[in-house]
TrEMBL record:
Membrane topology label: Multi-pass membrane protein
Protein name, entry field: ABC transporter permease
Main localization (coarse): membrane
Stretches that traverse the bilayer: 6-27, 34-55, 61-86, 93-111, 131-157, 189-207, 213-232, 239-256, 262-283
PANTHER family hit by this protein: ABC TRANSPORTER PERMEASE PROTEIN (PTHR43370:SF2), SUGAR ABC TRANSPORTER INTEGRAL MEMBRANE PROTEIN-RELATED (PTHR43370)
GO terms of molecular function: transmembrane transporter activity
Positions in coiled-coil regions: none
GO cellular component: plasma membrane
The UniProt record lists the keyword Protein biosynthesis: no
Keywords from the UniProt entry: Cell membrane, Membrane, Transmembrane, Transmembrane helix
Localization per record: Cell membrane
Origin species: Bradyrhizobium neotropicale
Pfam entry (one): BPD_transp_2
Length: 305
């Protein structure tokens, strides 16, 4: 039971940055914008988040620095893709390359430094319950925030008028514009939200997951977050299942290596990404009613003047 508990705790920790980043990207894509720069925004959030926490001694300040870094990176994307109507795919890829290089420059002076990681919740009487105590009541604040975030996005999209307007911009921006809705402003705010979530997800890595910063520590998590949005069919509820599924694959391959399973370690390390490809192929073959993506996803919109 102790081993099972340890595996579950590891899965929760590994899944949290995926869930946070994918939640922000889901809202962004529901507005009709395809931002492939999640990886770049995440690694910038990791570098700036660790720098902020190391300099201030506060995890909260570090998390805020990560969110600000992700938001500023997203504004670069918004300026190019929305303001100048540049191709969104090319802009997102350029943003990732920029983020990887810039984060290495910012974090160069912090490599080798360590901080005290985010504290875990401790509720007397509840945290001490065997097995479920640590799982349910002993996580750090980021884990509970990720769950609250996905619930909030679901409520916003399906229970509020602004959420309906945002989905309308993603499905038919011309009609939304004809009705008088500021499509570009709505999409810019959605992109900024996605950037803040990606920055927070990146900051989680050095602030709670591993209490130090190394270049490239996101290790492709931004790309998995993008795949999770497709895996969930752009629905928040399915996103939770997908995030924990892929987190479980990541952790189990690490345990399998520790157990001495006779499979090359390189293959085991590639297993989460291989699972991503397999799931996307299966989903594309299973859909019989056409794509469930927002109809205007990735389409450039230039309002009439």
């Amino acid at each position: 039971m102790e081993l099972v508990e340890a595996i579950i705790l590891s899965v929760l920790a590994a899944s949290t940055p995926l869930l946070i980043a994918a939640t922000g990207e889901l809202l962004t894509e529901r507005s009709g914008v395809l931002n492939l720069g999640v990886e770049g925004m995440m690694i910038m959030g990791a570098a700036c988040g660790f720098a902020g926490a190391w300099l201030s001694g506060s995890i909260l300040v570090g998390a805020l620095c990560g969110m600000v870094a992700g938001t500023l990176m997203s504004l670069i994307f918004a300026l190019m893709a929305l303001g100048l109507a540049v191709n969104q795919v090319a802009t997102g890829l350029a943003l990732t390359i920029l983020g990887v290089g810039l984060s290495g420059l910012i974090g160069a002076g912090f490599v080798g430094e360590r901080i005290t990681p985010a504290a875990h919740l401790d509720i007397p009487g509840l945290t001490d319950i065997p097995f479920i105590g640590n799982v349910l009541f002993g996580q750090d604040a980021f884990v509970y925030l990720s769950l609250a975030l996905i619930v909030g996005v679901w409520w916003f999209l399906y229970r509020t008028r602004p959420g309906l307007i945002l989905r309308a911009c993603g499905d038919n921006h011309l009609s939304a514009h004809a009705l008088g809705y500021p499509v570009l402003r709505i999409r810019t705010l959605a992109v900024m939200f996605g950037g803040a979530c990606a920055g927070l997800a990146g900051a989680y890595l050095p602030l709670a997951y591993t209490p130090f910063f190394i270049p490239g520590m996101t290790a492709g998590r931004g790309w998995i977050a993008l795949a999770l949005v497709v895996f969930s069919s752009w629905r928040p509820g399915r996103l939770v299942v997908g995030a924990y599924l892929f987190g479980a694959v990541t952790i189990l391959q690490l345990h399998a290596q520790g157990w001495g399973v006779g499979i090359p370690s390189q293959f085991m390390s590639a297993l989460p990404y291989l699972a991503t490809i397999i799931v996307l192929v299966l989903l594309s073959r299973a859909r019989t009613g056409g794509s469930t993506a927002p109809a205007a996803l990735g389409t450039v919109f230039v309002p009439d003047r």
